[in-house]
Write a structure and sequence with these properties.
Strand content: 15-25%
Order of helices and strands: EHEHEHEHEHEHHE
Number of strands: 7
Shape: globular
Largest sheet: 7 strands, parallel
Structural class: alpha/beta
Length: 257
Amino acid sequence: MDLKGKTVLITGGRRVGSALALMLADRGANVALTYHTSRRAIEQTAGEVEARGVGSLAVGADLSDADQAHAAVDKVVERFGRLDALVNMASVFRRTPFRSLASADFDAMIAANLAAPYHSAVAAGQQMLTQSSDSESNLKGKIVNVGDWSTERPYKDYLPYIVAKGGLTTMTLALAVELAPDVAVTMVQPAMIDPPPTLTPEEHAAVIAATPLKRAGTPGDANRMILYLLEGTDYATGACYRVDGGRFLGVDPIGDA
C-alpha cells in the first residue's frame, strides 16, 4: 500500500501514537486521531500533522460505545472520503493486584482494551468493505491492532488487562477471517515501550535485565513494524508480531517485584 494520499485513523494518539502520526504524515498520508480525555495532546499532534502538508482530524469519542465508534469513522469518511487503514493503539495499562481486585477493574480494562478496539474495528471494517480496492494491493483497507506480548506468557498483578488483551488477539484472528480477502488484519505485540508511571526505577531496571536485548523499546521500534504492515507487505493477515526485545524468552520480573 502506497501511503501517499491515503487516510489512516489512529485511536489514541498520545506518545507512541503521536510519533506514528508524524511518520505517516511524512509519507504523505492524511491522519485522523481519536481522543477521549486527552483532547489538547491530540489536537496538538493533529496540528503537527497538518504542518507537514497533509490533512488531519481530531475526533472526540468514547470508543467503548459502539455508536460513538461508528460516528468517529463516519467523521473521518466525511472529511477525507474514505478510510484506508485503522491502527487500534488506544490502551489503558494499570496494576491490579489479585487480592484487591474489584469488578470495576475488569469493566475498565475490557472497555478500554477490548470493547473500544472491537467497536472501532467493526466500524472501520464495515466502511472499508464499501470502498473500491487499492489498485496496487487489491485491498480495500488494513487494520492493525496493538496488543501485548504478555498474553502468551502472563505475569502477575495485571489479570484484567491481560484478559482484555488476550481477547484482542483472538479478535484479530477472527476479524482477519471475517474481512478476507478485502481487508488485512494484523497485530503488533510490543513489550515496554513507554514505561507506566506505576513502575518503580527498580522494576524498570529488572525489566531491562530480563530482556535479552538489554534495553527498553522505543516508539520507533513498534511504529516501524506498524509501518511495515501498512506499506511493506500486502500479504500478511491474521498474524501477530512480537516486538519485545526477546522478553517472551526470559523470566519476567514484574510479578516477583
